[in-house]
Amino acid sequence: MKHQSYRNRIALSYMWATASLLLLVFALVYLVVEMTVYAHIDTELKKVANKHAQEVAVKNDHVYFVDKIEWEEREHQEADVNPVFVEIRGKKGELMDKSPNLKLETLGFDQTVPDNKFFNATLNDQHLRQIKVPVIRKSKTYGYIVTAVPIEGYLHVLHTLRNILLLSFPFSLLLLFLVARYLAGKSIRPVKTITAAAKSISHNNLDARVPQPAIKDELFDLTSAINELLDRIEQSMQREKQFTADAAHQLKTPLAVLKGTFEVLVRKPREKAELIEKVSFGISEIDRMSKMVEQLLLIARVDGYQSQTIHEDISIVSLVDDVVQRYSKKIQERRMQLIFEPEKDFLLHIDPFLLDLIVENLLSNAIKYSADAATVSIVLKAVDNKLHISIQDEGIGIRKDELTKVFHPFYRADALEHKGKEGDGLGLSLVSRACRLANIELQVQSEPGKGSIFTLLIHQTKQKNKNVEI
């Protein structure tokens, strides 16, 4: 059965299950008919036996027929239609009298058979249904009326019914298999369509999807699962292509610079100071490439992070403090002032990795693009059941027409005006993607020369304890 088609396996399983049920039905039909037939025979036989038990008399412990001549004439008239064999037996089973239709034969007598018990017997290879009824007078048993009727016709009907059922059973199985095979083929036809559609999808047409059936059944769930898998594969391939394209685009320039620098160095002997300067420049380019690759990998990780997000109850004040500590040295070196004086703490049910990533990049940009001795502020407040985290700087600002472009990968607003600022245009792109995954709304207000305010609007804020309010 392992090498059979799924269609045939379904048909066989259905056939065996139905065959078992059909066999049970056939057996019940035969038993019911048999019981009905014997019940009819026994009822008639009991009536005849009781009738003859009333037509006998007892004299000197001898049982005999009353009006035997009349009884014999009646039996003779009914013999051809439905013959009844009757014997009178004594208490010990001795034969006292019998019906004329028995001629030289006797029904026999078995004392082990209980009184009024129906049983089958034979007479000259003829099947009989038999019963013995005691002849009781004044609570004393004087003998027995043994009555029997032929049941050949009834047995012939039962045998015919049994043969019909036995012969029709294999034909029924064959018909069941053919019908089940047809229905199984019709049932799995949509599966074949799904299989063909799935096979037609390759890396060249990952945007294609398996058509879904109109009825929302198990096949609908199967196609939905396949399409969801294709969505994840397509997204993964897109991230890979994006990462490859981004890395190739961004690494091409520093590699070209490094190549040019080193080619110049090997053309002729150089002074030690010049060698140190050029090598130091090369090292700085390598450091920049390393940071760029790190950020590209981080973006790729964020893009594929959605199925791995882990929400926890975290303290926002503690998270912001941790981020601020990472930049405390840089803030001191540039004599900047960072203001973060929350009036209360907030507890959020959110992914800590994503929120930490967002706050760190926004704070890093605020410090980078602000002048020395400038002020950076971080404000926490609750408005309409939303937590607002605002990071405000006094930096160079962003023009209105560039507010949406700054979230594109590798885009830097007014790049020519701040060539001295290290950056690759990936930070805000990373922030935008992380906000989308964390379901955080990001708002930007900026004015060139006056600074920018980046505000995070986060839903589902919770109280940390009784002293913490939202």
Helix-strand layout with pairing:
Layout: H1 6-54, E1 56-59, E2 62-65, H2 68-78, E3 85-90, E4 95-98, E5 119-123, E6 126-137, E7 140-150, H3 152-199, H4 218-265, H5 272-303, E8 312-315, H6 316-326, H7 328-333, E9 337-339, E10 347-350, H8 352-368, E11 375-383, E12 386-392, H9 427-438, E13 441-447, E14 451-458, E15 461-462
Helix pairs in contact: 1-3, 4-5, 5-9, 6-8, 8-9
Task: Summarize the structure in words.
The protein is an alpha+beta fold. It folds into 3 domains: 6-159, Beta-Lactamase (2-Layer Sandwich), CATH 3.30.450; 218-303, Helix Hairpins, CATH 1.10.287; 308-462, Heat Shock Protein 90 (2-Layer Sandwich), CATH 3.30.565.10. Helices cover 50% and strands 19% of the residues. It has helices at residues 6-54, 68-78, 152-199, 218-265, 272-303, 316-326, 328-333, 352-368, 427-438; strands spanning 56-59, 62-65, 85-90, 95-98, 119-123, 126-137, 140-150, 312-315, 337-339, 347-350, 375-383, 386-392, 441-447, 451-458, 461-462. The strands form 4 sheets. The chain has a 5-stranded antiparallel β-sheet. It has a 5-stranded mixed β-sheet with strand order 9-11-12-14-13, with helices on one face. Strands 8-10-15 form a 3-stranded antiparallel β-sheet.
